[in-house]
Amino acid sequence: MHIFLTGASTGIGNAIAHEFDRYFKGEAFFSLSSRKKELLENLANSLNSKSAVYAADLAEPTVAEMTLDKAVAEHGPVDLLINNAGVQNINHFIAIQNDDAEKMFKLNYITPVRLMRKVLPQMLKRNSGTVVNIASIGGITPTPFMSEYCASKAALAAVTVALAGEYKNSKIHFLTVYPGPVKTAMAEYADERYEKDAMNYVPFGTAESLAKEICVAIEKKKTKVIYPAIYRTAELFRELSVWVTAQMAPEPKRT
């Protein structure tokens, strides 16, 4: 079982690595990728499974492709691709620099798509494989001051759902994950960007619990995970959720 995991060094990616290491009883092989080599090495040393570390700037899609190619050349075809790497930008739309916005979209959407296009031919040849794309509840309920982040995650969710339909006659499994607020470094960044105590009233989950949900979803061949569970109401009552979010979203600090 060759698992290629992006954004592995911290947060959700780190939790996924530990959870899947337990699930496969140390018998999987992990290709771990992110920018932070030292943290990746620490993670690799903490796993019972064998692993390889690939430090790379995944916001450059061609670099991400070369990283995947190297992992495949060294450890064989990917059985489970987990596109977890992502970045968030919280600010007034007109205050965000074009370069920053485009880099975010590359990491959140273009890189995952490029990696899927790389692994799918071999998965189709074997008629097996799993692709997990970590989107966001923001892809269901767009949030003010996070417009382009939400757009990138909505695009990732849309392509995942579409591919599940496109390959419905194969045994390739596509899973779309919609995390709401989860206690990670990204959440800490959001807390710092908003006015004081704005995040205190938001229901949070944990990366560890989300990783367990993802593991169960793969085992049961589910097509989506919305976590924490309270955010399933955002999908059930989407128009109301969008309206409430637009009214209640806190304004970020000006920079």
Radius of gyration: 18 Å
Tally of extended strands?
Answer: 9
Biggest beta sheet summary: 7 strands, parallel
- Class computed from helices, strands and strand pairing: alpha/beta
For this structure, the CATH topology is Rossmann fold
User: Average pLDDT, to the nearest integer?
Assistant: 91
What is the helix fraction of residues, given as a range? 40-55%
**Which spans of ≥5 residues are poorly predicted at pLDDT below 50?**
none
**Taking strands numbered 1, 2, ... along the chain, how are they ordered across the largest sheet?**
3-2-1-4-5-6-9
Order of helices and strands: EHEHEHEHEHEEHEHEHH
Strand content: 15-25%
CATH H-tier superfamily: NAD(P)-binding Rossmann-like Domain
Shape: globular
CATH architectural grouping = 3-Layer(aba) Sandwich
What would your notes on this structure say?
The protein has 255 residues and is α/β, with parallel strands linked by helices. The protein has one domain (2-248): NAD(P)-binding Rossmann-like Domain (Rossmann fold, 3-Layer(aba) Sandwich), CATH 3.40.50.720. The protein has helices at residues 11-23, 37-46, 61-75, 98-126, 147-166, 185-193, 207-219, 232-236, 238-248; strands at residues 2-6, 29-34, 50-55, 80-83, 129-134, 172-179, 182-183, 205-206, 224-227. Helix 1 (11-23) links the parallel strand 1 (2-6) and strand 2.
